[in-house]
């Protein structure tokens, strides 16, 4: 009998198949682990430096489990952002997950529990590893193990980060620039994938307008303006041709983010046929990532003033982050370089 987690055929022992899938999944994800663990480490450091207890790291990573959104969630919950705004932000930031259903090999996964976990753990990294392989070479167990390894790298990195952060004798200013650097790197990558200039320009204008007219609700206003601008452009082209929040609120925010993220990953598998033929959905998926990441990067800098002590470190760190990523296209190097530049200038030059 074939189990829910394997597709082994006759003559292949369960033990041999299990070990083979484990080794294959470990090989598949080792390079991803070199990127996920350090980023998880940075997340843990930022979390504990923001005032959270260490045990919030695994809670964030097991409930949200959405990389860049976990970084963003720290600021959202500290600002006690309305849950409706958190839901909208999650929808827009993770909108790209809708398209993973088009090519992720979920059909290879056997068993309801395994399929539910596979949809929950469908991150960028897991998709990149599994979707690029011949589906016929993937057993159900191997797909699940790929996702388990990816989540382990991230969760363990986050726990290591909070432990290191808790041991630091002082509060380090500027560590939160890692979030800005992350979104800048993602924006550069999104622009490289589709060199469309109007989308980032519309995003920048939306962010600047929102920053001026609705600073307290900048993120929701900016993303709303950006989506409206993209829809208008699409139609035009078609026509032409630190105080900690209450724990109950925090848990509710995590539940909202987890729920919206899971729905974005799971629902498309049920409606995959309409998605394949929807020009609007494909248009939004192609043009939204670069703009969303730029808006998020500007959102993280909303506290920067025009005073030299505030503006110079941010501008220099942004320049270093972009230059490093254009030079080497290595996310971790770019984030570390930009964050280190900001911390040195903020703490020891202008501090």
TrEMBL record:
Q: Which GO terms describe its cellular component?
A: plasma membrane
Superkingdom of the organism of origin: Bacteria
**The entry's keywords:** Cell membrane, Membrane, Transmembrane, Transmembrane helix, Transport
Where does it mainly reside? membrane
In Gene Ontology terms, what is a biological process of this protein?
L-valine transmembrane transport
Q: Where is this region: Disordered?
A: 1-20
Q: Which residues form the signal peptide?
A: none
Give the UniProt subcellular location, in the record's own words: Cell membrane
Entries under InterPro entries matching the protein: Brnchd-chn_aa_trnsp_AzlD, Brnchd-chn_aa_trnsp_permease
Membrane topology classification: Multi-pass membrane protein
**TM region(s), chain numbering:** 30-48, 143-168, 174-190, 197-213, 219-236, 248-273, 279-299, 306-326, 332-350
Task: Name the family the entry cites.
Answer: Belongs to the AzlC family.
Under what name is this protein listed? Branched-chain amino acid ABC transporter permease
This chain's source organism reads Rhodococcus hoagii
């Amino acid at each position: 009998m074939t189990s829910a987690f394997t597709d082994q055929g006759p003559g292949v022992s369960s033990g041999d198949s299990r070990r083979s899938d484990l080794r294959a999944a470990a090989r598949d994800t080792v390079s991803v682990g070199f990127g996920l663990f350090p980023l998880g480490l940075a997340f843990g450091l930022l979390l504990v430096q923001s005032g959270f207890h260490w045990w919030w790291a695994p809670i964030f990573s097991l409930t949200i489990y959405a990389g860049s959104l976990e970084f963003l969630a720290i600021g959202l919950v500290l600002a006690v952002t309305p849950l409706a705004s958190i839901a909208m932000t999650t929808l827009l930031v993770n909108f790209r997950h809708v398209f993973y259903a088009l090519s992720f090999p979920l059909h290879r996964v056997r068993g309801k529990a395994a399929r539910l976990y596979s949809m929950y753990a469908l991150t960028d990294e897991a998709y990149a590893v599994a979707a690029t392989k011949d589906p016929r070479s993937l057993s159900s167990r191997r797909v699940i193990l790929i996702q388990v390894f990816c989540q382990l790298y991230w969760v363990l990195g986050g726990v290591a980060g909070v432990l290191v952060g808790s041991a630091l004798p002082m509060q380090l200013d500027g560590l939160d620039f890692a979030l800005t650097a992350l979104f800048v790197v993602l924006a550069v990558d999104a622009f490289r994938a589709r060199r469309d200039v109007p989308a980032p320009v519309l995003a920048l204008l939306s962010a600047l307008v929102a920053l001026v007219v609705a600073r307290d609700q900048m993120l929701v206003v900016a993303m709303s303006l950006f989506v409206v601008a993209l829809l208008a452009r699409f139609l035009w082209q078609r026509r032409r041709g630190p105080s900690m929040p209450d724990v109950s609120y925090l848990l509710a925010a995590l539940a909202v983010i987890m729920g919206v993220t899971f729905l974005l990953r799971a629902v498309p598998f049920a409606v995959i046929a309409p998605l394949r033929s929807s020009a609007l959905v494909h248009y939004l998926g192609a043009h939204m990532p670069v703009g969303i990441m730029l808006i998020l990067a500007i959102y993280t800098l909303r506290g920067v003033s025009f005073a030299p002590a505030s503006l110079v470190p941010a501008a220099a760190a942004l320049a270093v982050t972009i230059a490093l990523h254009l030079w080497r296209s290595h996310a971790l190097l770019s984030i570390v370089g930009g964050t280190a530049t900001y911390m040195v200038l903020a703490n020891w030059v202008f501090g």
